[in-house]
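Appendix C reproduces, verbatim, an entry submitted by the partner laboratory led by Prof. M.T., so that reviewers can inspect both the input and the predicted structure.
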Amino acid sequence: MIDTLKKQALEAILNAESLEQLDEVRVRYLSKKGEVSLLMGKLRDIPQEERPQFGALVNSLKETIELALYQKKQGLEDQALWVALSKEKIDVTLPGYQLYQGGVHPLNQVIEDMEDLFVGLGFEVATGPELENDHYNFEMMNLDKDHPARAMQDSFYVDENLLLRTHTSPVQARTMLEKQGKPLRIICPGKVYRRDDDDPTHSHQFMQIEGLVIDESITFANLKDSLLTMVKHLFGPERIIRLRPSYFPFTEPSVEVDVSYQKKDGTLGWIEILGAGQVHPNVLKMGGYDPKKFRGFAFGVGVERITMLKYKIDDIRHFYTNDLRFLNQFKGASK
């Protein structure tokens, strides 16, 4: 009886031509009211000593049918997949998916370009905190508590001693102390804050790059050479610079630096781009250097101003409005 049922079940599974027909075979033999379940119900009519053997044969029959059903189902599913694939057509001329790819912000492009230039000249890139101590931000830059020049950098204070840095000069102060009187060459890029009213040329937040060199044989000529190298790298080999006397508490002598450009009428014009000078002896002394032995030069440039001149941008606020119509113009812009 069991062998006959096995033969019938396997033949039915073999002849099933679809998943629906195969499921009908499963229900006929393995459901709660199927042929195999009915066999288990006959155990009560079998002598006690024969029941274990009979039960083992029924379980073996069930396992054989389940395995045959599984194998047949796999074959029918593979066959259905191949039929579906054979009916599908792929148009290889259709355009692919367009994945949006961002670009480097124009300010970061200029910063990275400047870093590449100065690292190649032997400088290190130094960074520091944006929330700064008054001591590093002002006092070590030769700006005492009541110094009138502090009014030029009216600032965002958190408490009496902490403020959002007004320049990256405190990074220079911290680095001088870390060097413990050894020569240094650094540039300090970063974000700074001042209480300026936002307009096309001013912002309460902007980017700055400062440079500092301290050694035993530094002269004003070294400063001029570095500035000229930077200007020619940024704007082209035909550009020249002009130095005008100025005042900064942390440098002496100090200069404003202008870069040349050609006016529409063909004449030479000048645009102010940065301030610079030789490091003040007081700054050297507070940084751990002997002013009688060491000399240095420093400069500070606004990244936005450089970027506006480089790419002919007329409003500093464009850099911070997150307008993709503006930013997309600088994708892949060359350095």
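The chain has eleven helices and nine strands. Additional entries are available on request from the coordinating office.
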